[in-house]
Amino acid sequence: MEESTQDQALLNTPENKPVLASSSPKQVRFAISAFYFMQGVCFASWASRIPTFKASMGLNDAELGSILFALPAGQIMTMFFSAKLTTHFGSKKMLKATAPMYAIALTFLALATAGWQLAAFLVLFGITGNLCNIALNTQGVAGENYYGKPIMSSFHGAWSIGNLTGALIALGLVNLKLGMYAHFWIIAALSLTNVVFNSGKLLNYNKPDTVAEKTKFFTMPQGILVLLGLIAFCSMATEGTMFDWSAIYFEDVVKLPHNRAIIGYASFMFMMASGRFLGVYLIGKFGRKNLLQISGAIISIGMGLAVVFPNIFVAIIGFMLIGLGVSSIVPMVYSIAGNNKKVPAGKAITMVSSIGYFAFLFGPPLIGYISQLSSLRYSFGIISVFGLLITFVITKIKEIN
């Protein structure tokens, strides 16, 4: 999922201890996975309908790029505010409150009839999404501790599966010619049903044993952390571009009909989800440094294919390669940063993810502006450069096992 700076800090902060609930570890794991899954479905429902918004409002690429800026802006607005709420109320209560808010905010998007309205609703969607995201990642940490095994990657894999499922649902409903408002309310109903049936299995918390050391909002990273932040930036910029522009690319460049353009987004998400579940095996086989180099090369090759040969079959293969390439990069980068011996884990990850998160803020709008000046096809060539940059930068980092 879209992993904010604060999310990653929480992943390494032993804040509150989960109370042993009546639910078994497997039930807790399923419940948390279900929340990750539904958040992925909600996000994909929006992303898969971006071409519809663009066409219905008559937006050019630059105008759409400016509007897309609103979603990450909303996320940033509440980044640390939502963390304080989660710490005060506990992630279970926050998740029970914010998951419905996020789903209902999705339905507001369908009410937009002008660009400024869509931007305003995207800010709301970003705010509620970040509130839910912080609570969900905190609950994920508790669930991992309660389960007794490192299963966090499987939670994020559930988000990716939800994202793919949301794209496929949208593909089906578009072909059935169901209106966007009805589509989004179907998704909201599914999310609300999940809250009703699975929130009771989430973990409660005791009060923290210690008070976490206060740190500045942002500390300038040094050495290896700068390079890791650059790798995270390139990967997140690629992800953000694919989330927001892949369906439009298949409609405008590959020339698929509107009701089939979601195939590009779905193919990317399928391989991204698969790669996340395969990540542990691939790291064991190739090692982190080699896998990062391979991943960067795969991104470049995939986008190169889609740009040079923009027909449906080659473009699908290209987008699948991009999904595979980005799937394990950010988790590996955070793991490397967290094991840095010179900086505490939480602080190191915060530094790296602070750099990377700006990619979500500026990447997708930048694609729109470049596309307006040249074409969407050639603006996507930037992603190939990001992949090559990942492969190059990783060669400069020696402190990786």
UniProtKB/TrEMBL annotation:
Look up and give the organism this protein is from: Pedobacter kyungheensis
GO MF annotation list: transmembrane transporter activity
Extract the InterPro entries matched here: MFS (IPR011701), MFS_dom (IPR020846), MFS_trans_sf (IPR036259), MFS_Transporter (IPR051788)
Q: What is its subcellular localisation? A: Membrane
Protein name as annotated = Major facilitator transporter
In terms of CDD domains, this protein maps to:
MFS_MosC_like
Predominant place of localization? membrane
Q: Which PROSITE patterns match?
A: MFS (PS50850)
